[in-house]
Amino acid sequence: MKDVSHALTKCLRHSAILPTDVKGWAFLTDVSFALWKDHREYSNFFRYHQPSEAELMLAMELDLRRDRFQCTVLGKGFFQHNVMVRAVQGHSGRIGTKIKNDLAFTRVREVECLNHYTKMKYLRTIIWKSGPGLGAWRHTQEER
After folding, report:
1. Which of 87, 37, 17, 40 is nearest to 59 (CA)?
2. What is the mean pLDDT of residues 56-68?
3. Model pLDDT, residue 135
4. In angstroms, what CA-CA distances link 84 with 51, 52, 61, 106, 108?
5. CB 23 within 8 A of CB 86
6. How many whole angstroms separate alpha carbon 11 and alpha carbon 31?
7. Which residues face 87 on adjacent strands?
8. Given a cut of 70, is residue 144 above it in pLDDT?
9. Are residues 48 and 28 in contact, defined by beta-carbon separation less than 8 angstroms?
């Protein structure tokens, strides 16, 4: 299930074929199709097997402690195009350019503590003065 969760996250954040709205939401039915159709991009596990919505929901459930997904159900019952899902952060490519931040996220003006998780190899691009930095950090520093 770990591989399914990773493929699901990658698809929701970076897919070139997944239809999403301006808030990054996609129907789980469409995510299933995108994982199968573009299996070389995500996992050869899906080469001969289009994942069911139940399998994708289990992968999200088992990944709960990581807070990578938001999921909602539009109506009662279990049918196609009823479950919507989105990745909470890290969008890029076609999905990233389509997202309208003011609609997708709530602006936070003040926080006591902010954590950003990344790989060590990217650390210099985030916190060193020579790197581009995080958008909010850079904005806060410029105001001082």
Report:
1. 87
2. 81
3. 54
4. 15, 14, 14, 19, 25
5. yes
6. 7
7. 69
8. no
9. no
Reading across the β-sheet that carries 83-87, which strands appear in turn?
26-27, 83-87, 69-73
Placement of tokens 């990658």 in the chain: 10
The residue that leads in pLDDT, 118 or 18, is 18
**Total residues found in the chain within this entry:** 144
User: Which of 15-19, 30-34, 117-121, 128-132 has the weakest average pLDDT?
Assistant: 128-132
Indicate the DSSP class of residue 75.
Answer: S
Of the candidates 50, 103, 63, 53, the one whose C-alpha atom is nearest the C-alpha of residue 83 is 53
10, two tokens: 């990658």
pTM, two decimal places: 0.71
pLDDT band at 118; cut points 50, 70, 90: confident
Short-list 15, 30, 43, CA closest to 85: 30
Domains of the chain: which residue ranges?
2-103, 113-144
Pick the CATH number of 2-103 from 3.40.109, 1.10.3470, 1.10.10, 1.25.40: 1.10.10
